[in-house]
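Handout, page 2. Input:
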Amino acid sequence: MIAPSLKLALCLSLLAVLPTVSSCAPRGGVPAANPTAIMPTSKANAIDYIEIPSHDPVLSKTFFVALFGWKFTDYGPDYTSFDDGRLSGGFFRSPIVSATASGGTLVVFYSPDLAGIRDRALKLGATVTRDIYDFPGGRRFHFTEPGGSELAIWSEK
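Output:
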């Protein structure tokens, strides 16, 4: 097992020489720009960190701050990390974004007020790609956020 400080040093070295390495934060929530940040405790065999492609991470950040009140930390114009209080992740600049039609992973959020959150998302610039529908266990809708990736929100009501 490699010590976290050694992992960070290796990642920082890769960032310096490989233009395709864009972040040192695919897991653990500590991008290279902030090596002194405290890493959250990870849980074995669980989703630890999620990175979502965005045409414009600033637009994605602005949207989710307004929609859910998430906290963000910026690491330059091409990466911003979030903490929703339960899971951490980030938005990275990419010409290709996630969509279910092309086989992309669908990240699904929860809200107890599905119609209300749908209306707020629309007012904040989202585009509904599949309106509210029933599925076993609840209801949900799909949308693209202003950065371009498709996501969903569900509720049991």
